Amino acid sequence: MKKAKYLPIIGLEVHIELKTKSKMFCSCSADYFGSLPNTHVCPTCLGLPGALPVPNKKAIERCVKTGIALNCKIPEFSKFDRKNYFYPDLPKGYQISQYDAPFCENGWLEIGKKKIRIRRVHMEEDTAKLIHKGKSTLIDFNRSGVPLMEIVTEPDINNSSEAKIYLKKLQQIVRYLGVSDCDMEKGSMRIEPNISMLKITNDKFLISNQFPIPNDQLPKYKIEIKNINSFKFVEKAIEYEIKRQQKLLEAGEKLTPETRGWDEIKQITFSQRVKETAADYRYFPEPDIPPIKIKNLKFKIKNLPELPDEKIKRFIEKYGLSKYQIEILIATREKADYFEEAVKIGKKNGVSAFKIANIIINKKINIRKYLPIKLIKLLVKKKTGQITDKKQIRKLVKKVLSENQKAVEDYKKGKQEAVQFLIGCIMKKTKGKADAKITREILLESIKV
Question: What single DSSP character describes residue 256?
């Protein structure tokens, strides 16, 4: 009997702590990491009777800024809601969050040729941190009330690789905006994948690439994996869960909504509780915070910085670099700015953008240690004794190509990094003295021939 085919259906919820001086609804310092437990607290974030919340305007502004960068619509009206559930990390017995009127909605983020739809970007307060010691559980309320932005996708992701690409790109955008450092080791970016499996009864469905899948055709359940703080673990957790669910479905079992945890040591997911629905949380408008009209907040959102995708296009046009080189150079906004500053100085000293890009990438230049002017001085010094003779370089290129046929085939298949490998081989033979720009031009000509 032919086995049924299943398509993974994955949505992601990403929680990001915003970089603000104070917490979301009180004046306590939000810079709590590394502080002694329960030293950044007040009656409001401890949930004491009579304490009233006052929304942090800067946090809302940063949430809206993120929404704009993610192509979201910003509604005129928004409000806060109470999300009710009883757990030790919530001193009030509820969390101030947003339900049906978030600050940002209906956006998208492109990964390759695929658009991942973003359902909403909303604000809430972070919870306290539970510390388990033996049979005891201690609570540190320093994190309680820190501004927490939640970004929720539609279930448009179909494998762990797509999830990782989306998350890395999202992290890069948020860092470019300067609204959070997204430091996963400190817990300022936490990920919750929602995974289910769709039974495919018609092979033509996959061939015709009918995405996004209509809501009425999606599975009637989803499994949520809570609070993962590493891209590697997200990938592993998704892959494990896909195999686990498929095995159960093939055995004829019916899956129901559930919340599971990720065991980093055993590399498995484990059951925590039955997954709550919106009705279980008994959402209702937060009575202590009036509804919010975005335009009344009079934000000072200046023009957004040039974001990674825009920067890639400009760098290709302006500097003639490969996409592979550019992706390394724009990994962070600081690195991209460093490169452009070095190019300005290099132009006055006859040093090409290509050569600057190469040394930053190949030598892994520490941009905090070497100022751009120091880097250019180093390159000018190296320029002495440089090989610029095209006949000599052509001979070297011919020899390197004959010795590295696999790299040549890889380039022809579209792997741009193969060019960098071949240039590296030539540089090794000439102890770095071959002119990089001339070498690249001759190399590309030779490969095409």
Answer: -
